Amino acid sequence: MKANSILVERVSEATDEIVDVIARLVPQLSSTAVPPDRAALEQIVASPGSSLLVARLASRGDAIVGTITLVTYRIPTGLHAVIEDVVVDESARGHGVGAALAFEAVRLARDLGARHVNLTSRPSREAANRLYERAGFVKRETNVYRLDLS
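Structure (tokenized):
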């Protein structure tokens, strides 16, 4: 692995490292979300419909500096793929980590047979939105609705 290289890998086990990294990264994504505990991460990793990917940055001693989740599910119109919870550590932004994560999630979705990949991003996340557009994602005119169940 070269000094500037990024390794993206699929998480297969909720290790102490993964639990700690997710606990550190989730608050950088959302000020209201509570990071999942080990049991929740074990469910995510074991779920056939979700793929938790992490990015390691060689220049940081192969430390995990980002994560992305690919969710897939089958409905009558085919296999759908959605990218969720993309976060790169604030200290590692600008090194191509987000692009590497997105590229790998899209590759995985394609390999699984999805015809397209959806994602949403708040307008305030300007750098993330530029990344998605550079990666080939096209902004769609749609309404997103949410019903709060809490």
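Residues 6-134 form a domain with the Aminopeptidase fold (CATH 3.40.630.30). The CA atoms of residues 74 and 80 lie 6 Å apart.
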